[in-house]
Amino acid sequence: MRFELFIAARYLRARRRQAVVGFITVISIIGVAAGVASLIVALAITNGMRRDLQERLVGSTAHVMLMRTAGDGIHNWRPLMAQLAQMPHVQAVAPGLFGQVLISRGAHSGGALIKGIIPADELKVGDLLQSIKQGSAAELEPTATAGNELAPPIVIGNDLAETLGATVGDALLVTSPQGELTPLGLVPRYQRFRVVGIFASGFYQYDSSYAFMRLSDSQRLFSEPDLISAMSFRIDDLYRAQEVGQTLEQAAGPGFQVTNWMEQNRELFRALKLEQVVTFIVLALIVVVAALNILIALTMMVMEKTRDIAVMMSFGVSADQIRRVFLFQGLLISSLGTVLGIVLGYAASVAGSHYSFIHLDPGVYSIDHLPFAPRIVDALIVAAVSLSMSLLATLYPSSSAARILPAEALRYE
To answer: Which residue spans traverse the membrane (predicted)?
Structure first.
């Protein structure tokens, strides 16, 4: 151990003539630990929010979606879908017909977005049908009797089912605003459907307003024979969605446009990133306060050790060595607090990620619990910030110690 570090460690462990110096040193360590732990937990929460929202959004929606610019739907879609399925990076493609409807059961009703699907294709591009908790999506498969049932099958979200008071086997009345023109005017189309499955993705936006039915049933409900609204694509690298989308748009020809999961959720992820930066800045102020405590503690230490410093300098210890003694002492205090804070912060984050003990309102936050996702890189960044602030706090007291004149300090000893 070099001389300066040895003296710094001895000063840190030595009994104080003034108890307040030791108390402020302990407070400094606790302050650094609290600031570092708070930063670790806050960054773990923001990372967890971003990760969970991204996973659920990407799992619940297509990576890339192709649709007509005019909004009148895609006719003769089968040859086009077969062509685009062979494009590079495309893993799966599924047709879909979307439409807003009113779903009611007795006195209960709620708006929903219907998606007409072919289940075998839909399962390859999205995960919503894989999150069915009650019933099954098997009855959505096309059959020889499809179109002749009195109540065709439908799969709805868990929160929508609670709003309607519906369970598997119940009948729902689905009303489409795209009605039929009669002598009495435009009459909405309506049809009864039978609930065969209820999914629970944990993402409120989908659980409260999404419903699936067979593509053929949705085409009859919306009076759109052999037409789809969009094609959904799953690709091999979701971060290349924009590049692959442009290729698909060019291959589809004029009159088509694409959107992807990043464009659809750009503002959400931008807000999460801004929240992470603001949270880091605000909680870093705790570390700044702890650094000020280190400055006070070292300043009082210099005042207490003035005679010792003068004796060491009279024995030939240089001013630079004295400066490094107090620099090392400040870094030791900061290092103890930083290590303690990282341990506490990671312990709290790991406990939060395993037990999910903080629950949220999914109607507000889109997820039902507070996620934690601690990262090593965050710990390194927080440690670097903590040590840097503490180093700045040691500059003044260490410089003051180096300017002590031995003759003046020992004159009256």
So the answer is: 20-45, 277-303, 324-352, 372-396
Among 407, 410, 411, 404, CA closest to 321:
404
Using the structure block, give the residue that is written with the tokens 């309102």. Answer: 361
- Chain segment 162-184, per-residue pLDDT in tens: 999 999 999 999 988 776 655 55
pLDDT the model gives residue 178: 72
Smallest CA-to-CA distance from 16 within 7, 24, 6, 28 is with 24
Three-state DSSP class for residue 375: coil
- Smallest CA-to-CA distance from 21 within 296, 323, 329, 335 is with 296
Taking Cα atoms as reference points, which of 289, 238, 290 lies closest to residue 264?
238
How would you label 283-320 residue by residue, b for 16+ Cβ within 10 Å and e otherwise? Answer: bbebbeebbebbbbbbbbbbeebbeebbebbeeebeee
Does the reported pTM lie above 0.70? no
Residue 40 to residue 294: CA distance in whole angstroms: 21
- On the 0-12 / 13-18 / 19+ scale of CB atoms within 10 A, 88 is exposed
The mean pLDDT value for 350-375 works out to: 73
Token pair belonging to 277 = 């930066």
pLDDT of res. 406: 72
Number of H helices, E strands in the chain: 15, 12
Tokens of 189: 């189309």
Cα–Cα distance for residue pair 413/402, rounded to 1 Å? 20
Determine the residue type at 61.
Answer: T
Is the pLDDT at 304 greater than 70? The verdict is yes
